[in-house]
């Protein structure tokens, strides 16, 4: 069964009087679908933009709008809300609400809940650009940061007021990562992790190339989850249409040689290297300078080997001190092939993929890998690639701890 990182989490979502409130309706729906218990608190102004009934239907829970009405009806109090929540998110946050939080005012249910909160508080400003950039608002945002609350930085773009500039709520995928980072242990903080992902392409001529079926999904999920858990992540990616995960630095390459050079140039700074890319083992001996016409084509293609990135990383590992993780895409004899690669490449850990199965091979959204190190192997469950990434990083963290304590 797929597991969501939001499952069972108690999230208080405070909504204030901004036109961007409509955008948050989708967030509430998604959080509820992923198993979160979402308690929506709306200010009086917010109710003028979206009705409480909308958020009640999406969250499956009563929406709270008035502190005294809640107390009189014996509903959950503002103190309980703050004490029991795993996370408080205020989105959209108006300049008015930001000012109240900065100065510790508690004149409504939402601001009172924030003062009583015993958990991480995230504030997502959304307003007219001039209001956002006003020195008073910027000062209040700085005060909120000094209080220990997190700020979800607004994006720039066309506003509802027909002006363009900063002040828009970010898209859900980026917000999701910031929520999950606030909810999870930052157990990889201080680590610099280099991850490779995707395929490489080796040109036959200007129009054609040799490649493989890798989508890059596993490497991108590893990068996403490592960043979520506090690591500084550099992603070296072959050709992929996947968006760069929030907070991750990315270098785009195309060929195996370009990936080799990018990895060797940056590996010295890494404490962990995870090579999840499916690098081409061969490339054409020569590339035709112009597109080869059908009638001129030769039917025997001469190939040469590409540089072995993992082999070189294994050779440098002892001197550089990083932990090295490799992947093996196999269709048979998984254990034997994985163990051979683990030893030959001088790896600390290898994740073995069975690419013969429909739900674990290339381009799938799920995965089931075997993890193998010098202590033995373990079979991970069939689950999403996001959760698989978490489980792999759990093992990486364990190996790092053992390495540094020995």
Q: Secondary-structure blueprint of this entry?
A:
Elements: E1 10-15, H1 21-33, E2 37-42, H2 52-59, H3 67-72, H4 78-84, E3 87-93, H5 95-102, H6 109-116, E4 120-125, H7 129-133, H8 135-146, E5 150-151, E6 155-158, E7 164-168, H9 172-183, E8 192-197, E9 202-203, E10 209-210, H10 217-228, E11 232-237, E12 249-252, H11 256-266, E13 272-275, E14 282-284, E15 303-305, H12 309-320, E16 323-330, H13 334-344, E17 349-354, E18 366-367, E19 369-373, E20 376-379, E21 383-384, H14 385-405
Parallel strand pairs: 1-2, 1-3, 3-4, 4-5, 8-11, 8-13, 11-12, 13-16, 16-17
Antiparallel strand pairs: 6-7, 9-10, 14-15, 17-19, 18-21, 19-20
Helix pairs in contact: 1-2, 4-6, 5-8, 10-14
Counting structural domains, the number is 2
Please give the count of helices: 14
Q: Give the termini distance in whole angstroms.
A: 37 Å
Look up the CATH topology of the largest domain: Rossmann fold
| Global structural class | alpha/beta
Tell me the name of the CATH class of the largest domain. Answer: Alpha Beta
Largest sheet data: 8 strands, mixed
Strand count? 21
The value of Rg in angstroms is: 25 Å
Q: Unreliable runs, pLDDT <50, ≥5 residues?
A: none
Q: Can you list the strand order of the major beta sheet?
A: 12-11-8-13-16-17-19-20
Spatial shape: elongated
- The CATH architecture term of the largest domain is 3-Layer(aba) Sandwich
Chain-averaged pLDDT? 92
The amount of beta strand, in percent, is 15-25%
Helix content, binned percent: 25-40%
The CATH superfamily of the largest domain bears the name CoaB-like
